Amino acid sequence: MTCPPSPRLVPARPFRRVVTAAAVVVLVPLVLLGCLTLGARHAGPAPREGIDRWTLREGMQRSQAGCRYAYRVFEPTGGTGQGTTGTPRAAILLGHGFLRDQDTLIDLAAALAEAGYRAVTLDFCNMRPWNGHHRRNADELLALAAREGLPGRTVYAGFSAGALAALLAGADDPAALGVVTLDLVDQAGLGLTAANALAVPLRGLAGPDSACNANGNARAAFLTDGASLQRIDGASHCEFESPTNWLCEVACGDETPLPRSAQARRDAPDDARSDARQRARIIAETLRLVDALVAR
User: Fold this and answer.
1) CA gyration radius, the chain
2) How many C-beta neighbours within 10 Å does residue 142 have?
3) Cβ distance 276 to 234 under 8 Å?
4) Which of 190, 192, 149, 153 is nearest to 175 (CA)?
5) Which of 105, 132, 241, 280 is most deeply packed, by most CB within 10 A?
6) Region for residue 181 given its phi and psi (left: phi exceeds 0; alpha: psi -120 to 50; beta: otherwise)
7) Is 266 helix (H, G, I), strand (E, B) or coil?
8) Cis omega before residue 259 (within 30°)?
9) Residue 214 and residue 239: Cα distance in Å, rounded?
10) Is 0.85 topped by the overall pTM?
11) What is the dihedral sign for C-alpha 138, 139, 142, 144?
């Protein structure tokens, strides 16, 4: 009797390649979806009567590339540090992350306005999944600064890809007070080139290296003259947004690890409370950096 042929074994290396390819097919869309602003939108900002010390103006502008974008101005009405004339301490232009929107900056903008700053947010209309159009985003920040900023009293700030746009804009505005970045992500060395050309201070906050901040690929920008970077231990990429959404948290692994000991686990707050405290810390540190730039 002739034995049937032995089953053909798949070499280990091709098998690993198949597994890796399958993982990429699953994970890349998940990460991309985490960047997209899908599902129910956050409630729009509205100052609470008798509590909040800011008002809101909204408008539309056309980008130099032709698309239209919405923007908001959080105007202080007696916040800390305003002069007797009611003039804001400075104008802070804020850029959102890749494929996100200005809703993810509401809490930070409101906190800045409470502190006496004019905070300006916008929806970058040129971003595409295949091209962030960082230069165009910077041009939108510059155009909006010319319209809503304060001459010689403007700070450019942003989160992730929006931080890159802020850095590019700051490099093109020597009259700015400075640039503040939140978990900056660089692209093809654009940020490093801008940091080397920057004539104003660069201040950054960043979480641990992760896939969602491109494994900390912007750290070289903070080795340039006049730059400094502060690490926020344990902060996920999504915690630099305020508010964020569940897709970002899933894609970026935004889970607070439980302590090892049983007693510590019983005493530990739940993940949502921990995230909220981390966001509050990031907002407070951002305000501190802005205050220092304005006081120079």
Assistant:
1) 22
2) 22
3) no
4) 153
5) 105
6) beta
7) helix
8) no
9) 16
10) no
11) negative
Instruction: Give the pLDDT band of residue 222 (cuts 50, 70, 90).
Output: very high
On whether the CB atoms of residues 96 and 47 are closer than 8 A, the answer is no
Residue whose entry in the numeric block shows the structure tokens 């004019």: 118
15-24 pLDDT, tens digit per residue, is 455 444 444 4
What mean pLDDT do residues 166-195 have? 97
List domains and CATH numbers for the chain.
Answer: 44-295 (3.40.50.1820)
Q: Where are the alpha helices (DSSP H) in 67-181?
A: 106-114, 134-148, 161-171
Helices 271-295 & 106-114 angle (0-180, nearest 10): 50
What are the residues whose beta carbons fall under 8 Å from the beta carbon of 73, sequence distance 6 or more? 56, 57, 58, 59, 118, 119, 120, 148
Q: How confident is the model at residue 34 (pLDDT cuts 50, 70, 90)?
A: very low
pLDDT digits 0-9 by tens, 170-184: 999 999 999 999 999
Q: Which of 50, 82, 109, 106 is nearest to 244 (CA)?
A: 106
